[in-house]
Batch of 2 targets.
Target 1
Amino acid sequence: MWRNGSHRYGLVSISFHWAIALAFVALVGLGAWMVGLSYYDPWYNDSLALHKAIGIVALALAVSKFGWRFADPRPGLAPDLKPHERAGATVMHGCLNALIVLVPVTGYVISTSEGAGIDMFGLFELPAVRGMTEALRDLAIELHYYLAYAGIALVAVHAGAALKHHFIDKGSTLKRMLNPRAPSGRRG
Ligand code: HEM
Ligand code: HEM
């Protein structure tokens, strides 16, 4: 139930997936909205503070997810996928897994490169990175921007593929990511 089987996702992996998915989509929305606010908007400062703190939570979830894999290896892809779908899913999952680390890390570099730490919901402060050059900060700004928006395009393809496989091909992938007791889709 909690742990993955050879062809099933357990509750821990399912919870990581949906928590990270929700955080990623919400952070792109929040990020796109906040950069359009004027200096006089009441949300000008708070929206960025919230974006940073939730972004760090997303990073912590991603790192924990990778850590959890050592204790609980991932199941294989659903056996009812065709070879080209398996290849596509493997590449897509690799890209998404890279993005859920790279986007918040570049955000952290942008935010702390001038020496200020990150206020985590008023509970504690994360220290700033030291020794950051102007060039590295500019690179982080570019990467944060392009990777976040490329990420949301990839998520649209990823979610579209999951929905197509569920509703049109009547496959098992989405059920596996929603219910740890779902049939595995294994033939025979
Ligand atoms: C918003 C709607 C989304 C839907 C409907 C969805 C659906 C799914 C499904 C069905 C799988 C299981 C594929 C399999 O059988 O192996 C999966 C896996 C995966 N998804 Fe999503 N997903 C969504 C959003 C996201 C987002 C926003 C991210 C990250 C930015 C993400 C990252 C991943 C990764 C990395 C995997 C591979 C398994 C893992 O490493 O945890 N997904 N997704
Ligand atoms: C998965 C996590 C994250 C996502 C998806 C994300 C997404 C975004 C997006 C879409 C923007 C707007 C870019 C634009 O249109 O110019 C943005 C801006 C920004 N984000 Fe994030 N972000 C994440 C995490 C973080 C973290 C952890 C921090 C800092 C600790 C951070 C700091 C910033 C800053 C400072 C900006 C403004 C950059 C500028 O004004 O050019 N982000 N983010």
Target 2
Amino acid sequence: MLKPAQIASYRRNGYLFVPGLFPAREITVVRKKVAKLVAEARDSVIYEHDGKTVRSVLNAHLYDKVIDAFCRSERVIHPVMQLVKSPVYIFQSIMNVKRAFDGVQWTWHQDYPTYKVDDLMPEPRAVNAFIFVDDVSEFNGPLMIVPGTQKHKVRIGDVDTSVTPYPHGRYPKVDWVKPLMADKGIVAPKGKAGSVIFMDLMTVHGSGPNMSPWHRSVMSLTLNSVENKATGTVRGPAICHDYRPIAPLPGSRLVAAAHA
Ligand SMILES: O=C(O)CCC(=O)C(=O)O
């Protein structure tokens, strides 16, 4: 559960960083599973432009018990319910595995424009929880955030595949982002695996390439209010339409799922 000061900080800055939210025994289970999912490279995998380096694993909670228990963990569900003030459902889970040496950047953007235009999400009443599955440092392409930008207007960018091969994201022109950064600066929370960044869908963010020898897997888990259902279908398997409210699971269920 979040303390009132943490909620106030989230509302002020458009994000909240909580180091060490998942204990090592739980996140280790998830890291092992991610290695397996990357090696298996099922249909739900997106590659970098080289066509062979896995970039993201889409909605693995739909077919994998460990990832499902991870996404339903009380460690993230309770805080997000506090932030959106209602029960939530899983809108999408994307494991961004930014591979050592080969992981490519994520261009600056807000999440909500894509969700509004393409997924018909009525309001930005959802939270993107970035859960560190690997340790994140200044070297392996940490998420970068322009704090306070959640208060800016929605900027509908074009679908762009020049950097990100994933054809479903909308990216604003750099001229729109530039003055925001000059005004607000940039932060890049770093920490041990198990740390979590809770981020408002309006907050401008992106991340650089991974030039280090360390993978940087981060789960981008978007939990949406059950009162704010996104009904669009154009992004196909990228989003989920199971609107049932999540019953938060204890951490022990995540470890148990690995042995089931
Ligand atoms: O994984 C990253 O570094 C960025 C992902 C991202 O921008 C997103 O999920 O919206």
